[in-house]
Design brief:
The protein is mainly beta. It has a single domain, classed as Galactose-binding domain-like (Jelly Rolls), CATH 2.60.120.260. Helix content is 13%, strand content 45%. Strands 1, 3, 4, 6, 9 and 11 form a six-stranded antiparallel β-sheet that branches. A five-stranded antiparallel β-sheet has the order 2-5-10-7-8, with no helix packed on it.
Length: 180
């Protein structure tokens, strides 16, 4: 009996607590994310890339650049100006030489004008700006936020680079979210 009373009394109290608790991410809105393996691989790179679950990386002994293109969809599925208003480009990757020249991951956020086809670069993330050689998540904030799906298409292009001395460079996924 004590267990039922405690449970019945706690559920509404916990619901109210979670509703009123300050949580910036919960209040900001939806996130867009894409695993690297579900992005489109550039046709020229089909002979040098390998995918395993969410990851994209080089085949053994392969060198060069792998290009991925990830279409950005509006999860709100509405045509409201300024929505969803993302201003953060994030990526999970591993660049084994950090700021070195043997491996590199660069992510570009583009918008394409639907009426004219003119493409514009909105943000760039470059792994060579960071020294961390482990697999991890990093992000970069940009302005102005994106969200005009009525007039623009959006996509993220990822370039994974490795030369003959490079290690196991890989990308797991990309996302768009909100800067805190």
């Amino acid at each position: 009996m004590y267990r039922k009373i405690l449970t019945r009394g706690m559920v509404p109290a916990l619901a109210l607590l979670f509703t009123l608790a300050p949580n910036a991410h919960a209040q900001l809105g939806p996130i867009w994310n894409h695993t690297a393996s579900s992005c489109a691989i550039d046709e020229a790179d089909l002979g040098i890339f390998q995918a395993n679950q969410e990851e994209v990386f080089f085949m053994p002994g392969a060198v060069g650049d792998i290009f991925l293109r990830c279409n950005v969809n509006n999860p709100l599925d509405v045509a409201m100006a300024g929505q969803p208003g993302w201003d953060l480009l994030g990526i999970t990757y591993q660049d084994p030489d950090g700021m070195g020249v043997n491996t590199r991951v660069v992510a570009f956020l583009y918008q394409v004008n639907k009426a004219t086809g003119v493409q514009g670069l909105l943000s760039t993330f470059d792994s060579n700006a960071l020294a961390d050689p482990t697999e991890h998540y990093s992000s970069i904030c940009f302005a102005p936020p994106i969200g005009d799906f009525l007039n623009f298409y959006y996509y993220v292009q990822v370039r994974i680079s490795r030369n003959a001395q490079g290690g196991n460079v890989k990308v797991c996924g990309v996302d768009l979210y909100y800067c805190d």
